[in-house]
Amino acid sequence: MATSLPSVAIPGQRLGSVAAYAAGPGTHIQQANIYASIAGPVVVDPAPPKTQSKSTLRVSRVIPAPSRGTLSGTSQKPRYNTLPAIDSIVLARVTRVQKRQATVSILVVLDESAANSDPSKSASDNDNVASILTSAANPENHSNTDELRFQALIRKEDVRAVEKDRVVMDEMFRVGDIVRGSVISLGDQSFYYLTTARNDLGVVMARSDAGNMMFPASWKEMRDPVTGVGEPRKVARPF
Amino acid sequence: MNDRRRVNGPPGGTRPPVFQSGLQSSNPSDRPRRQRQPAELRKIFLKTGLIPSASGSAYLEFEPSASLAANRSNPKSMIPPSSALKLTCTVHGPKPLPRSAAYSPNLVLTTHVKYAPFAARRRKGHVRDSSERDLGVHLETALRGAIIAERWPKSGLDITITILEAEDDRWWGEPPDSHDASWGIMNVLAGCITAASAAIADARIDCLDLVAGGVAAITEDVGASHSGSGRLMLDTDPAEHASILSACVVAYMPARDEITELWLKGDSSKAVLDDGDSRQGHDALIDGAVDAARGSYSVLSEAVKESILNAVAHA
Amino acid sequence: MSNPRQASSASQTPHLSPAELSYLYTSLSLPKGPIRPDGRSPTQFRPLTAETDILPGTNGSARIGFADGTQAIVGVKAEVEKTVLASDILQQDVENDLQAPSDRRDGAESTPSAAAGGHGSWVQMSIEIPGFRDDDALPVFLSEMMRESLVGSVTDAGKGRDTEMAGGLKGRLVINKRWHWRLYIDVLLLSQPLSYPLPLLSLTTHLALLSTKLPKLKSQGEEDPFFDDDWGVAEHLYPRPSPSASATSSQIRPPVTLLVISVGDNVIFDPNREEISVADAVLAISITRNSEGQGLKLLSIRTIDPPSRLTQPGVPNSENLSTMAATGNSDNAAAANPSAGQEEVPGVWRPRRGGIKRSVITELTRTVLKKGGVGEEVLEGLEGVEV
């Protein structure tokens, strides 16, 4: 394609032909042409060099921040919703623990591109993950905003990969824990289904009975730094 | 359509005051006249992202007509010569569907159009009446054709439009009951469509194209005594015309050259077109509305582009 | 039935699988004319039974039943209401107190006053559909659509033979300067609609209005009105042609709203539920006979949201993870990811996207309006009904 790509696109703007590019997120195909479907910067993801595939054209939902490092923590960046899809990694807060399942409410869907690539140059939603988590872990914020969040279930058999039959839900999650999970199904009308059956999935933040933030001690225990008491959890492997 | 939750008293039976000048309608010189060319549109102000708590928002305003601007700077009469449209649109979502809702593989769109009580000449109640509900359905039809709904399974999108100042159905100087065809609502719908499309783009919901609203009407002017002299006008301000015979509003996607919403009413058979124009009245009317929509699209695309460029510049 | 509050204008959510939708779409969009599931021709309507004057308590009533069992009953009641008009009252005050000069009076009369022209709000329409609240989108949309064309159909003043109908339905409701008829049109659908109920409701309303009679006025001039109780001398709301007038078609009749869909390049009338669920575009077109001559007049067009936009997409075999054995690695998952817009695969159902091409609208209206077209056919059929 001889035509050069625009730097930003608006919905309905023609970007290129399917002969030259593959259509990525934020675009749609119509009559063998790729059109933008959201407003945002146009990004070309080069194809992996060894394969025959074309480079992918997408319209980014997030605005790239050119000057990392100098960015102050106070800069408010608009956050755009990304919907949980199959295989996306989400952070969720436990709202209810039952014998056979735990109910969680999804706080944020982690950007896959950022999760897979070098975290140091991730220009994504993940910036404000920290702020979301700290606010969500605060008991005062456990308000009825759950109504506005997507609900998900972690079934007993999806908690861990080994010793599935010995899982006791109370020893895996407590209400208020922040869990990293992977979406396995869009589920039914009300719940998504999550799994934590991987080493890097599970509880990432939790408070002890005494109310202190705990640190992971092993794959199934977290410990209160003040009282020294350990509590059982399905712990995610820290990075 | 009654409020079912409350026991309301009988309706007040009030009406806007009648002015003496309205009864002496023999001085049509006060009546505002269209100073634009038949195909000339009013200027539109459109800005997105004004409401931080919403995932997308837009504000739209039509340029007041020349006579209205003159009256505002130097008011002679309490009767505004015409009205200008002002409305806000907010988009909330995508958010989970309520628990009672069934599974939906697509985005579930909910549109809610409400006049502010003070928006029009006659005060509107706080409960939506049938014309506001009807507007909501029209808007939903217009937008659903543009949104790529299957990208947002299991989620809902709420679009709320508040009309701060509504286009009126006729000149206020005329007696309030003189005729009742609601032509202003069509301009309001066109504004709603344009603003909602900007707000959806601001919320980064996948769309096939921006969708713009446009209005055209066949009008008869004061001087024309004999019937059969309907002229095709784009972006009509009902206050500027003695009578509107027929009007049409479309929601139009320029990149695809497709119409997602069409609402035509009235008698379009009396349109007098240029010589050699063999189109029937309604076809000319629809084409006119599409032309008007193309005009508002240019504003719409600039507004969306401007908001994204601003965001890039400030990132 | 899905939650009716979510159900939008046209959406009786179709309960067809993607494969069925695709088959139906293909057969309806055949270039040599559609093959409809019930074997009708594209312009053929479903058979129906109709009767009028079934309810003695009304001024006019009608019942229409489709062969699939759905029935609609319409009752029209007319009640007398005092005309409250700002201009009118003040005008009288002015006349009484000031002995207004005659030119003022002329001026006031030259403005189209509601006392002469009638008011659209005098016609009130309510539609009751089982399973819907009366403020849900569907009943509101339907009643606005039908009311709009009813009150909008103004025939040419002065030229028509029937001066009573000069102002259209609105004008007919004026009794004198201070009193008018208020017309209540109540539509009852007896069962949950199996298809989009617009054609059924429109035809039934048409017949009910035709059979509506208003009692004969005995009072004169600006008196408070009182009426003759002899039903025999009551006048039809839509006046019958006097025996001297020869052509029956010269009678003024209420408008009719037709439901038209386009599938591919084909235009299909009176779609049933399955057909409408694959439609590319759905239009409701209101027509009436031109007051002079034989032509048809277009009163309104509205698009209706086609339910095909809400259907579940089919999955092409190439992307079906279950037929691809267990090779569902991340590459394939990405291919199945709906966020990457794929090309249309023939034979695989995709929900319809986008709007209507301009040329399709022209084609749809032309099919309705052209001489000897579907509009005339329908009106002739209705004229055959004994009222």
Automatic annotation (TrEMBL), chain A:
One of its GO terms (cellular component) is nucleolus. Residues 8-45 form the Exosome complex component N-terminal domain. Transmembrane segments: none annotated. One of its GO terms (biological process) is RNA processing. Coiled coil: none annotated. Keywords: Cytoplasm, Exosome. The keyword Cytoplasm applies. The keyword Cytoplasm applies. It comes from the Eukaryota. It is found in: Nucleus, Nucleolus. One of its GO terms (molecular function) is RNA binding. Residues 83-186 form the Exosome complex component CSL4 C-terminal domain. This is Exosome complex subunit Csl4. It comes from Penicillium chermesinum.
From TrEMBL, chain B:
GO terms for cellular component: cytoplasmic exosome (RNase complex); nuclear exosome (RNase complex); nucleolus. Gene3D superfamilies: GHMP Kinase, N-terminal domain. Pfam families: RNase_PH. Keywords: Cytoplasm, Exosome, Nucleus, RNA-binding, rRNA processing. GO terms for molecular function: RNA binding. The keyword Chaperone does not apply. Residues 40-205 form the Exoribonuclease phosphorolytic domain. Residues 1-38 are annotated as: Disordered. InterPro entries: ExoRNase_PH_dom1 (IPR001247), PNPase/RNase_PH_dom_sf (IPR027408), Ribosomal_Su5_D2-typ_SF (IPR020568), RNase_PH (IPR050080). It is found in: Cytoplasm; Nucleus. PANTHER family: EXOSOME COMPLEX COMPONENT, EXOSOME COMPLEX COMPONENT MTR3. This is Exosome complex component MTR3. It comes from Penicillium chermesinum.
From TrEMBL, chain C:
Keywords: Cytoplasm, Exosome. GO terms for biological process: exonucleolytic trimming to generate mature 3'-end of 5.8S rRNA from tricistronic rRNA transcript (SSU-rRNA, 5.8S rRNA, LSU-rRNA); nuclear mRNA surveillance; nuclear polyadenylation-dependent rRNA catabolic process; rRNA catabolic process; TRAMP-dependent tRNA surveillance pathway; U1 snRNA 3'-end processing; U4 snRNA 3'-end processing; U5 snRNA 3'-end processing. Residues 325-340 have a biased composition (Low complexity). GO terms for molecular function: mRNA 3'-UTR AU-rich region binding. Transmembrane segments: none annotated. InterPro entries: Exosome_comp_Rrp42_subfam (IPR050590), PNPase/RNase_PH_dom_sf (IPR027408), Ribosomal_Su5_D2-typ_SF (IPR020568). Residues 31-60, 95-119, 324-346 are annotated as: Disordered. It comes from the Eukaryota. Belongs to the RNase PH family. One of its GO terms (cellular component) is nucleolus. It is found in: Cytoplasm; Nucleus, Nucleolus. This is Ribosomal RNA-processing protein 42.
